[in-house]
Amino acid sequence: MSEGKYRHLLTQSLYIFLFLSLLHSTPEVEKRSTCDQCDERLFCNCSSRNYQHVPTVTVTEVVTLDLSFNDITSVAEDDLREYTWLRTLDLRSNRIQSIHEWAFHLLQGLESLDMSYNQLAALNPAWFSKLLSLQHLNLLGSCYRTLGPGGTSLTRLRFLRFGNPALEEVRRGDLAGVRQLDQLEVYGNNLKRYDPGSLGDLWPLGVVTLRLRGPFQDNTTLVSSILHDVSYSETFLVVADVLLSEKTSIAPFRETNRRRVRSIMFQNATLTDEAIVHFMECAYGTFLGSLISAHETWDQNFVFHFFMFCYQVMNVYKFTSFLPVGFLLKNLRQISIINCKVYVMPCLTSLLLTQMVYLDLSGNLLTDLTLTESLCHGIGILRNLRVINVSDNALKSISLISKLVTRLDKLVHLDISQNAYTSMPPTCSWPQILTHLNLSRAKLRRVTPCLPSTLEILDLGHNDLTAFHSVALPALRELHLSGNKLMSLPPGWLFPSLEVLLIQSNTLNMFGPLDLRLYRRLRALQAGQNRFVCSCEFVNFMVWRWGGAVEGSVELTDRWDNYLCDSPLPLQGQRVDRVQLSLFQCHRILLVSSLCGCMLASGILFVILLWKIHAVWYVRMMWAWLKAKRNSGNQKRRDAAGNAYLLCYDAFVSYSEQDAEWVEEFLVPELEDSQPPLSLCLHKRDFLPGHWIIDNIIHAMERSRRTLFVLSEHFVHSEWCRYELDFSHFRLFDGDSEAAVLVLLEPISKDDVPKRFCKLRKLMSSRTYLEWPQEDERRAEFWSNLRLAVRGGDEL
After folding, report:
1. What's the pTM?
2. Residue 378's closest CA among 394, 346, 402?
């Protein structure tokens, strides 16, 4: 190849490479994805779809756009240009590092903007300069160290969240454009600098959440400045993620005392009991100051509610006495210490709680022994108590608890659930007005008369109960039995006042109208998530009772999706109200009985029909004939060998007893005395004695060349003549149509012959009868023709 051609090819390759590079370097705008998950409310859910750039949407006037949990790294100037109708924009949990300063300028109607948990290293006030309608702004997360210069006029902003682990400074003027806030959340665990007054112009503040773990430990002056700026008498203050271990860490709360903050909540806080005591001393001044401000005098009986929800308690074995704040404890009416690993409240402390009406020690480490100490061995000191909640502890004895509370005359509500009870004593002693008892989530296997008869609400859910009987509760209005192993509804007559019954997640197979009829006042029932046997009775009752067919006083308050068939297997998993059962499945006994009745009736009709058409005789004669043919065949084979003779008679005479005189006086002499003589077989003379008459008839007919029927009215109605006609009929079927000779003693129609002898009737229609003449001069011809017929002459 020449050098010129080589250079030409190299130049072309370079041009192609440059062209492809230009194609790959087209602006990102042309590669934007499209999100089509928009609904009729103009809400586009584009969350968690791995978008790397702000996508376009199929709705032109989208109001809410959710772009959270994607991989967007930047927001360009034109990315949001088409979303001028937007009211809510969610950009949280992306990887946004840069936003063009004019990116939000066309979103003048935007009311909510969430930019939390991205990778923004700095905040630009220009982003918000045109967002005059913005009310909600979330800037939590990211990695900015300061808020940046203020001056943006966000006059309508009401909810603001900012801060992250990297936030170090909040300077005066950072929020200069914000005037009024309802809610403020500050995340400043590593905050090192705070200019006093930076948050002082934000008013009114309804809820303030402060996450200042580091400053509470290292810079209480900084915390005091913040609390001074955000504390108002009506502000609900939430202090989260803090460690309060010593008296010095409580010092900043003197600002809340001076500002007369009435509501403080610790969330996910780590406290020691020493810190709690110092905080209560500090907080008491707040309440006292509020009271004096309102009434100008101090009422020593002033009471309030102490609430503490703990996730972690430090130095649990380092006791600090609460006696120094006894002046405060005696005015407490409600105490809630939840999930704080408390295992005892000394009786000396309990003696100070003379005004307490509500005590919640749930989720702690109380045992039977320590609860005995906390309630002063049941001597009835806490006589004003109306509610006790000691659920989720380590209690084991129901009998002991009943003794400890029996002298609390005003106790109406007792929650001792989620403990380690395994049995219930036969009898117990309870306060006379106890109406609410919660014994759920234990390990009880049966109930006893230990339950107080004054109960109105009883919760025994999530135990191991298999039955509930013999315990009458006449005042009970609400019964919770979900999560047990009950196989049937409790007897309704035990609860004449019951209005609400919850019995979900048991092993109920079914229930019916008789079960519910015993509950005279029941109005709400929850019985889903059981192992229902979808029988016809149960399905029809459920559909008829609650499927819209009738309006009843009892209402199913859980969803139909909870009522699923467990058996039979083909219906497993189907909703009860959608089950379609066949008529046979629902009325099997009736249908089987009807079918058996029809079969019986058909059998009776069939037997009657067989009797009418003489089928029984027909079958019997067929069997006898087949037997005779087999014997005859064997005899013929013997005759072929020359060992026996075949026929003994010229004719077998079949006649009625009423015609015997004619046979014996006329027929026998004329045929047996003729030349040559004919041999006749007569039943009176030639049948073998001791043999079955049927066998004699068959044997005689098989050994006779002809069968001579003497027909008359007597013959037709003779039973034995019918046998002989039957066998003759079978012989005719066997092909020997010359075997029968018919003699009519008197005129008789073929219709008098039974219809089942069809071939014999046909022969009577096709052959000439030998009729016995009444005139003497014709009898000679009659005998001549009869001899000829018996000997096998031509057809007459």
Report:
1. 0.55
2. 402
